[in-house]
Design brief:
The structure is a homodimer.
Chain A lengths: L3 H8 L6 H7 L4 E5 L4 E3 L7 E7 L1 E7 L5 E8 L3 E2 L2 H6 L6 E4 L3 E7 H10 L2 H26 L2 H11 L1 H4 L4 H8 L3 H9 L3
Antiparallel strand pairs in A: 1-8, 2-7, 3-6, 3-8, 4-5, 4-7
Helix pairs in contact in A: 8-9
Chain A binds a DNA duplex through helix 9.
Chain lengths: 191, 191
DNA sequence: CGCGACGTTGATTTGCCTCAACGATTGTGG
DNA sequence: CCACAATCGTTGAGGCAAATCAACGTCGCG
């Protein structure tokens, strides 16, 4: 079934009866997204919570200098959403684009509140997910400030060796906060 | 009443009956914290969700270079917690210290689950709070990468003019990711 | 096959750090 | 309540990590 990756993920954090799962299903939409397609572009309101069943996305901004700055990646079994835009229904600064051909499952913002009302356990699920996401972003800030570019790269690529294979180097450089040239020089060095 | 600041904050996001509020009260602990006192020190498990009724705290790490790096500030009506430590009950990397004499209200981790079970609306409250916190930290990462130190300082101090008065400059410099000397030079410049 | 996207390499520049020395302010014990 | 120490902020000289710019190699795809 198309929704299985999400249901499986939900079950790690909360338990839903069969009836409850059936109640959930009509609120879920499924979609295939081709590499380079956008599911959110800046200036538009983020209209859903996106769960990645399979694939990879990046969230980025256009900087004043005319470059693209990646602020987040998300892969299989992660959520990606601009909560600033979703919560307040205001235009997003960000773009969300598929890095690979992907499958997503999403909850539209119009039906989100209704769904939470019917299945309060989802509040709990998202609370837990968000605790982790928030903690991770605090850790990331800490690494940004305390490590050099090279240290950050080495730490990240030993922590996620499979992931670094999956995205082009210039995206990795952007996510880690330096230039593609600099990444190339690090890799050119010993080892 | 000692708990009022928290109740008032809760009411902005969820509505609780009088009965529900009374159910909540026994789970809340209140404490005064003197300037420079710690409510969490690295190596220990973060044992509560802390709400700041009044005052100011900083969360920081000791870096490899022997300096202190501030990763978060929190003032009146904000929560501060190391969720990595709280969730997994493992030792924290971080320290949380009062920057001013403060009043806090907290929920101990031992009773947190029990409280959520009794008042599921709190799951919703924290979900919303965490969405905002997560969105804010993504915005912060974006600023770190796209703006120079000077731009970051000017942006931050025009956004929070009252706050920059409240903390010593070396803490502000640490939070913004540069040295106190550099901040001093920025301020020494025109205007 | 040819073009555009991606990666590499080197020369030069720059934003910010480091170190050091010196005022100003705060707070504490005699 | 004053004196002195510690803490905090300022200023300048010199250095370094990473950016910028430019030129060139390579691969995948239409």
């Amino acid at each position: 079934m198309k929704h299985d990756p999400l249901l499986k993920h939900l079950r790690k954090y909360i338990s839903l009866s069969l009836g409850e799962e059936n109640l959930l299903l009509p609120y879920l939409q499924v979609q295939s997204v081709k590499k380079k397609e956008h599911i959110l572009t800046e200036g538009n309101v983020c209209s859903a919570n996106y769960f990645i069943a399979k694939g990879c996305f990046r969230m980025y901004v256009h900087t004043d200098q005319g470059t693209e700055q990646i602020v987040q990646f998300a892969i299989d079994n992660w959520w990606i959403t601009d909560y600033n835009s979703l919560d307040f229904q205001k235009p997003s600064l960000f773009n969300i684009q598929a890095v690979e051909d992907s499958e997503i499952i999403f909850i539209k913002s119009e039906t989100r509140e209704e769904l939470f009302a019917k299945l309060p356990q989802l509040e709990r699920y998202f609370r837990i997910i968000l605790q982790r996401a928030f903690a991770a972003s605090i850790m990331r800030i800490q690494y940004i400030f305390n490590q050099s570019g090279e240290e950050r790269y080495r730490h990240f690529s030993t922590s996620f060796p499979d992931f670094v294979q999956r995205v082009p180097q210039y995206m990795l450089a952007s996510y880690l906060g330096f230039t593609p040239e600099f990444l190339s020089k690090i890799r050119g060095k010993k080892e």
